[in-house]
Amino acid sequence: MRDLTYYVAVSADGFIAGPSGEFDAFLFEGDHMAGIWEKYRGTAPTDLAAAAGLAVDGGPFDTVLMGWNTYAVGLPAQPDPYRHLRQIVFSREHEAPDGAAGVELTDRDPVEVVRELKAEDGAGIWLCGGGALAAVLADEIDRLVLKINPVLFGDGVRLFGDRPYRPAALRPVAVTPYESGVVLAEYARG
């Protein structure tokens, strides 16, 4: 069975984006980049990885899941951002834009879709955002991988949206601090 991994950058105070979707305060340069890329290869948009000379093959994931707001960050310039992965975008209100041939837009229940994906053969499934989708899929997440950035947002999109209080135990797998101040924290379900 395939695992669902929520792999995402997060501020030290638990936000994955600012109030208007800002994420430019996250560190995109530093000693953490090479080490994290080696472990989580393929987790950058196809064109961005190519421009940086980064290989996207051989990574832990073959499928990426996104909520509409996460997907829309690249629009209109990047309607097919992760062409090297199977891309599934969840939305009940939007239509796929022109040029999004490799994107599966669905209004289905995310839990049902994830359970079907887990039963398929293949590599891991990457939930790259957003917080509201993560809240819906919280009980389906097998691994939580956080790129904790040394920055406070104060407000914005929470890591798990408006998930109600319902504690769920996670087991620490690895914690890797970098001189940049970024900490890669990896957890598995209890």
Outline of this structure?
With 190 residues, this protein is an alpha/beta fold. 19% of the residues lie in helices and 30% in strands.
Account of the protein in words:
The structure is a single chain. This protein is α/β, with parallel strands linked by helices and 190 residues long. The mean pLDDT is 95. The radius of gyration is 16 Å and the shape is globular. It has helices at residues 32-39, 46-51, 68-72, 110-119, 131-137, and strands spanning 4-11, 15-17, 61-67, 86-90, 103-106, 124-129, 143-149, 157-158, 170-177, 183-189. An 8-stranded mixed β-sheet has the order 5-4-3-6-1-7-10-9. A two-stranded antiparallel ribbon has the order 2-8. It has one domain: Dihydrofolate Reductase, subunit A, CATH 3.40.430. The chain contains 5 helices and 10 strands. A hairpin with a 5-residue loop joins strand 9 (170-177) and strand 10 (183-189). The longest helix has 10 residues, at 110-119.
